[in-house]
Amino acid sequence: MESKKVELNIFRYDPQASLGPHYDRVEVEVDADMPTTVLELLKRVQQEHLPDLALSYSCRTGQCGSCTLKINGINRPSCKTMVEGNALAIEPRDNCTIIRDLVVDTEGDLERLLEGRTAFRTRRKTPHRVSEEEYEKVSDMRECIECFACMSTCPVVKASSAARGPLTMRGIAQLAFDPRISDVKNHLTEALKGGCYLCTTCQKCTETCDKDINIQKRVRQLRRALYYDKSLYKKLPKNIPLVMDTIKATKNILNADNTERASSWAWLIEDEVDVSSLINRKAKVGYFVGCVTSFKPSVDIIAQNAVKILHQIGEDFTILGPDEFCCGFPSYLGGVDENFVQHNIKAVSDLGIETLIFTCPGCYRAFKVNYPERIGGSLPFRVQHFTEYMCDKLDGGLRFGNKVSMTACYHDPCDLGRHSGVFEAPRRILTEAGVELIEFANNRQYADCCGMGGLLMVADADASGKVGVERIRQAKQTGAPALATACPACFDQFRRNADGLDVHEVTDIILKAL
Ligand code: SF4
Ligand code: SF4
Ligand code: FES
């Protein structure tokens, strides 16, 4: 038998004792060939090293949900988490009150959950035989073991007491979409009261859910049902219908004149690039600028940077200008069908574009994931995030001649990382541009949201800001003096809440390093 040593740093706290919160360090030898769960290891620690360690568990088989802990920064059921590597940081799960050591008070979570269940289920008057197809539609939600990992993970639960959180939304959706239930409206009303718009759709809850329950998808379905219900529509947070109507009317989310798409920022770089000559011309590469980057003065620097970069590296490219309509992503997040999928696909195809590149991860995700779903097939062109495109250029021999000297942490935008699977391209670009990267404690698929996604900013700007402040706090914990990201919304949020951090968007670093 080959053995290995595992070092555990275990959170300890007894409110009755004079010693405050602290960590006990314990080293345990385990059989390297025998998979062990974190819970089994902690039980050994309890038996052999720390007999007074307070620990909560019951079934040990992923059924009861009582053993959730924060393990190396991730909230998960400890009986379903295998020991990997040689070091474990063990803490109580987030977003709740500690009773002692690793045992927490679940009352707050339970209250949020039960509030969402005040609408009692009413069965249809006539029996309804549930078809296999109908069952499939709700079956995933029935898998929940109420382990509260999602509630501990959700950045909005942490930021807003009005948010009943992912577990509650799952419960409401399970009832609202159950084909045997007749009082759907009551459940939708609960969804509204429980803040189904208080969700950034960041998908982090699903990443930590041992049952893979896709809660943000259910949140969007609830929003859709609410939007298309004539009586409940009037009760939506007032900015939601406003934004949806704006997109329909103006073809952008900022209520701007869409004919100004390129011109609103082009004059700022007219000494270097004649942007008007790039609009609507035939080219193999197209740059989809996006509404926010086109019209929001605080982030249009990203459009300026991207165009300057493409110009400097000699790319033959085009932009759609007034022919670029909202990608439809905000409508999708609001559960609304109306968007401009066919228009945008045609506008891109008509210019002979073979590769369409994006600086906005939301637009990128819309084209990469939603558009193929909507048209039921692949797009007639390739889509790339700007950082993926730049990686191809590096592979083709492009080099950064003026490397920057900077230490920064990199924030993974949810739509680029968790939702689109692009984690390494921005890191490679930043590193090759000369940035010394320091990782957040929670990075890549476990990164926290910046707070701008999922229409949270539209529904509750205060909660959105608090989520951003928390991510900035985490950035400062890395010790890096600067923060880099690859998204206009994250960039905007972090700059507003920077608290002394030097905030960058990947395009400004690329431009400096070229
Ligand atoms: S949805 Fe998943 S993470 Fe949340 S309580 Fe249920 S099983 Fe746990
Ligand atoms: S998708 Fe993100 S914001 Fe929404 S419930 Fe899940 S963790 Fe919370
Ligand atoms: S002990 Fe029951 S789920 Fe882990």
Question: Main attributes?
Answer:
single chain, alpha/beta, Ubiquitin-like (UB roll), Fumarate Reductase Iron-sulfur Protein, Chain B, domain 2, Rossmann fold, 4 domains, five-stranded mixed β-sheet, four-stranded parallel β-sheet, 39% helix, binds iron/sulfur cluster
Description:
With 514 residues, the chain is α/β, with parallel strands linked by helices. It folds into four domains: 3-104, Beta-grasp domain (Ubiquitin-like (UB roll)); 108-233, Fumarate Reductase Iron-sulfur Protein, Chain B, domain 2 (Orthogonal Bundle); 251-389, 3-Layer(aba) Sandwich (Rossmann fold); 394-513, Rossmann fold (3-Layer(aba) Sandwich), CATH 3.40.50. It is 39% helix and 14% strand. It has helices at 38-48, 107-115, 132-139, 149-153, 155-159, 165-176, 184-193, 204-208, 215-227, 230-233, 239-250, 263-266, 291-295, 301-312, 329-333, 341-350, 361-375, 386-395, 424-432, 456-459, 461-477, 488-496, 506-513; strands at residues 3-12, 22-31, 68-71, 74-77, 87-92, 97-100, 103-105, 285-288, 317-319, 355-358, 382-385, 406-410, 435-438, 482-485, 502-505. The strands form four sheets. It has a five-stranded mixed beta sheet. Helix 2 (107-115) runs parallel beside helix 6. The mean pLDDT is 94. The structure holds iron/sulfur cluster (SF4) (2 copies) and FE2/S2 (inorganic) cluster. One iron/sulfur cluster binds at residues 144-150, 166-167, 170, 209-211, 213.
